[in-house]
Specification:
PHP_domain; 5'-3' DNA exonuclease activity; Pol/His_phosphatase_N; 272 residues; TIM Barrel; PHP_dom
């Protein structure tokens, strides 16, 4: 088995339609693919309906708050029809649109010649997100969008958003019959690394695993995360975080072992 547990489609901020992902996964040699769009299961039914030998795992990537920073939580095997989870995801998406509109306004106030219509065209029906605004900024020559000058966390054009605490998100995933895995906890592109103490607290709250092998985490970081996972009894996963053409990452660039995948599936069954 070759397993990639973190991918995105045009249902959020990826550039690949959900119906194309199973074919691309098969071409990449994958046998299991989790579709984990940001705060939505919208692409899942389309991807799952494609005739393919690739198993499609239901998933979602939830934006949450850990102390003063934002982190991302993967909810794998969660039931998309779970009413509490679906309601919270709807609230997050609705607020994302409000935030996106205001961020475009702030960018314009700061002199960026972009429009909401341009950003909506880039989003192509997906909930507005910062990558769509960044793409619009890049189109007018502003290539440093994710900095304090523009739309980085706390940047001049950033806007606060509705966000769950990570502990609340873990509880929602578990109540929906899923398992919670913390995505890229020490990515070199994140504003702050998740500490050992924070990981221990999340493990006590029901976290099942952490994403260890990830393109944005160098080898020495992965080695340390693997040690922490072992100490805390957490499963160590690997994933590409594929976004299509939006990131220079290929499907299956990092993968999860069959043994860890089996343990995740078993944990999901045990909490459902």
């Amino acid at each position: 088995m070759t397993i990639d547990l973190h991918t995105h489609s045009t249902a959020s901020d990826g550039t690949t339609p959900p119906a194309e992902l199973p074919r691309l996964a098969a071409e990449a040699g994958l046998t299991v693919l989790a579709l984990t769009d940001h705060d939505t299961f919208a692409g899942l039914s389309t991807a799952s309906a494609v005739a393919s030998d690739v198993e499609i795992v239901p998933g979602v990537e939830i934006s949450c708050r850990l102390d003063e920073f934002e982190v991302h939580l993967l909810g794998l095997f969660a039931d998309p029809l779970s009413v509490p989870l679906a309601a919270e995801l709807e609230l997050i998406r609705t607020d994302r649109v409000r935030r996106g509109v205001r961020m475009v306004e702030r960018c314009r106030e700061l002199g960026a010649p972009i429009t909401l219509a341009q950003v909506e065209a880039i989003a192509a029906g997906a909930p507005l997100g910062r990558p769509h605004i960044a793409a619009a900024l890049a189109a007018v020559g502003i290539t440093d969008a994710f900095t304090a000058d523009w739309i980085a966390d706390g940047g001049r054009a950033d806007v606060p958003k509705h966000v769950l605490s990570t502990v609340e998100a873990i509880a929602l995933v578990r109540a929906a019959g899923g398992v919670a895995v913390l995505a890229h906890p020490r990515s070199v592109k994140r504003r702050a690394a998740v500490t050992d103490a924070q990981l221990a607290a999340l493990a006590a709250a029901g976290l099942a695993g952490i994403e260890v092998d990830h393109p944005e985490q160098p080898p020495e970081v992965r080695e340390r995360l693997r040690e922490v996972a072992a100490d805390l009894g957490l499963l160590a996963t690997g994933s590409s975080d594929f976004h299509g053409d939006r990131k220079p990452v290929r499907l299956g660039e990092c993968t999860t072992s069959p043994e860890v995948f089996a343990a995740l599936r078993e944990s999901a069954v045990s909490v459902s």
